[in-house]
Amino acid sequence: MTTGGSRLRVTVVQHGGVLGGAERWQLALADATDRLDVSVIGLGGGPTADAWATRGWPVVRLPSKSRATGLARVAARMPAALRRLQPDVVLAHGVKAALLAAPAARALGIPVVWVRHDASYERLTNLIDRMTDGQVSTSDWLTRGRSTRHGLVVNPPRMAGPVPRPEARERLGIHVAPDELLLGMATRITRNKGIEDAVHALADPAAAGWVLAVAGIHDPADPDEHDRLVKLAAEIGVADRVRFLGEVPDFHDVVSAFDAVAVLTKPSPDLAWYREGFGMTALEAITGGVPVIATPPVDELVGRGGICVPPACPPAVAEALVVLADPEARRLVAEAGERRAADFPDAPGAADRLVDFLAWLAHRPGAGRVATGPAMSVVTTVLDDVDGLTELLTAIVPQLGRDDELVVVDGGSVDESLLVARQAAAADRRVTVRVEPGAGISRGRNLGISLARHETIACTDAGCVPEAGWLDALRRAVAQHPGVGLWTGTYRVVADKPWERALAAVGYPAVEELGRPTPLVRAYGRLFGRSWDPSMPTGRSVAFTRAAWRTAGGFPEDLATGEDVLFGRRVVATGHAAEMVLDAEVSWAQRPTLRSNLRMFRRYGEGSGNSLDRRLMGRDLTRVTAYGAGVVIAARGGRAARVAAGAGTAAYLSLPLSRALRGPRPLTTAALVPVVGAARDLAKAYGAVSAAVRSRGRRT
């Protein structure tokens, strides 16, 4: 059975007032995919915010401010908007949007990606790169000289071809004489876009046969530019050959109306170094077989489908118009442009690239895709846990695809576990049972993997209940990122009683925090070594390639506990990448009594001690040292030492207490956190130290 995963929730933060190329780029990609649940924070009302709203997406409108005090007020409203929308990832367009969205998103633990469409505000680029988790650029040249952690280039998508020329001109209301040629520009009406250079070029006697039509969008930042251009055209005697068409939302449909299209972006006194980010209009033109006259770097986009001219150089524009006045020259350039346009992805392909990137940063690889990845082998071990095995089989068998398999290795159960496993195998040919008396969990897993038919292996334990879609979440991750050797899923601890909730708060990660680590969670992890690390998986939810398993030497069979963590460490040490899959979630019930749980933690500690792994042992020895120092300070320390110890204790309990206070019966659970936490730590530390001493003795 293969099903589509739940869609990725993305909040777009974008200027709402101008529907330019950057805004149309995002709208085109969102329209081309069904893998997203989009919400929008529009900075200022206007056509872009309206365009999102007409598509049925929720839009939160915040003011668009320029002064520092106004920006601060908008930034203060951003966290509430993000809490309301609850995205998996935030996509901020441009410098202002990134500066407003990044602090709020990071405070809430939401991954944030910023989109760079041009080279404006160059001094802020490095700062925003550090503030965000990923960076998307719309052209290769925007990545030059930048050192980003996670970067992606998504060129403007190649849109569908335009309507025939007569229909296009009719829709635009344009009528030209038989001996006239039509030059088009689709752009914001602002000084940086070089419209005045095209107007001046018309005044050149050699370009007398050309008419200019501007599909112009008024820019609130330059409100007087339209009137200035009209006055300029009148002054130089070309007013009858310059036409302003107003906004043309679907320019790619009617680009065939023109004999050539100009993209003449240039610097201005306010922006002394300014270049077009990607030239969406240029791509629409060459897709429709229309030659382009372009300033750098748009000439790189169109290749031989256009003529390159220097910025702010009307004579060069006039010379290009003279060349393109020849029908044969126009035909050759147009054909070269159509070949060049074929190099660009269509809108669905570009949208998939962007969504895959965002899903990976949100730890939801393949979100929204149908799980068409490789066939997988699921391996689980069992020993005298008939109830746990029954729950596992009930949950996992319906998730198996036609070619998947489930391998159950029984370590010599004396209850009815083996009977239940064999009944499942008799009922479903995809289930295989192997009995290996005396086999521990590592030996059982290794044996099951050696028997498995497929190259991709998933493991879970009896006593775990995989959520619906668990296996397909792993399958999508493997399909989208075949170079990753280890995929670590998540688990949710079942807790009903106060002591269970206290132990869960102290000893286990919260799934909600894994996808959205707040500053407290990140600081706590760095300070106390309790960060969730996909290279240290749990056998409750994990997948890997057979190659990774083989190079790591399999699960260490000399360890009764901690074998999964050490296996993950060895996988990464041999050069394989490890990643997390939030959607691969299982639920797991704790032991029935506090005493049995403490025995389990003691065994976990013994696993660390037997492994003699420095990282694993370091955490437990640090606990021993901290508790020992705390006792000494309490008995004999001075005031400063006691204050420092108290502050350290408060910091250590901060995250578990915040978890406890968010759940049922918060005060009772929080009151138990210090006691349960100390018991858990000491049990694990005792197991680690005693096992390490015994292990060293044996080796000596």
From TrEMBL:
It comes from Nocardioides thalensis. Residues 178-337 form the Glycosyl transferase family domain. InterPro entries: Glyco_trans_1, Glyco_trans_2-like, Glyco_trans_4-like_N, Nucleotide-diphossugar_trans. Transmembrane segments: none annotated. This is Glycosyltransferase involved in cell wall biosynthesis. Residues 20-121 form the Glycosyltransferase subfamily 4-like N-terminal domain. PANTHER family: GLYCOSYL TRANSFERASE GROUP 1, GLYCOSYLTRANSFERASE. Keywords: Glycosyltransferase, Transferase. It comes from the Bacteria. One of its GO terms (molecular function) is glycosyltransferase activity. Residues 377-493 form the Glycosyltransferase 2-like domain. The keyword Glycosyltransferase applies. CDD domains: GT4_PimA-like (cd03801). SUPFAM superfamilies: Nucleotide-diphospho-sugar transferases (SSF53448), UDP-Glycosyltransferase/glycogen phosphorylase (SSF53756).
